[in-house]
């Protein structure tokens, strides 16, 4: 997962959402070994991204006015995605059902990212000072560099 050197936490996460979307498109448009490799990258991207959000972003969101419910909804979506991802891993990219099931998964991940961008990120930007948002980006970079 690329970690932009510039920007606050929202900028970094939006960049990573775009990277994830592009990689999921690779899974959908490829076959054979190329699909398997792209799917492996999706797994790694999601694991790194979600783990670091759960350590850095969601706890801070919970502390903002009205943020507890937003954070809990995002965590629930991430847990659901983890379950579907495990099913896809078990199914394997060569299974005839994989493309259709992956497409449904991709749509749910994109919807989750949109919820973050529409609900969680505006709360962070509206309630936290710029230096804290920049510090969160640095903390996220550190967490992701260790994984």
UniProtKB/TrEMBL annotation:
InterPro entries according to UniProt: Hemerythrin-like
Pfam families: Hemerythrin (PF01814)
Entry superkingdom: Bacteria
Residue ranges of every copy of the Hemerythrin-like domain listed in the record: 8-124
PANTHER family per record: HHE DOMAIN PROTEIN (AFU_ORTHOLOGUE AFUA_4G00730)
Entry protein name: Hemerythrin domain-containing protein
Organism: Luedemannella helvata
């Amino acid at each position: 997962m690329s970690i932009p050197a510039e920007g606050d936490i929202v900028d970094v996460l939006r960049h990573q959402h775009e990277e994830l979307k592009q990689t999921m498109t690779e899974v959908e448009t490829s076959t054979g070994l190329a699909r398997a490799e792209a799917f492996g990258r999706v797994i790694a991207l999601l694991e790194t991204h979600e783990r670091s959000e759960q350590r850095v972003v969601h706890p801070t969101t919970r502390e903002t006015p009205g943020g507890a419910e937003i954070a809990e909804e995002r965590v629930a979506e991430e847990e659901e995605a983890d379950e579907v991802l495990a099913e896809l891993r078990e199914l394997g990219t060569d299974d005839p059902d994989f493309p259709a099931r992956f497409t449904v998964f991709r749509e749910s991940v994109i919807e989750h990212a949109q919820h973050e961008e529409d609900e969680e990120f505006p709360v962070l930007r509206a309630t936290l000072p710029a230096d804290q948002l920049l510090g969160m980006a640095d903390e996220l970079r550190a967490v992701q560099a260790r994984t």
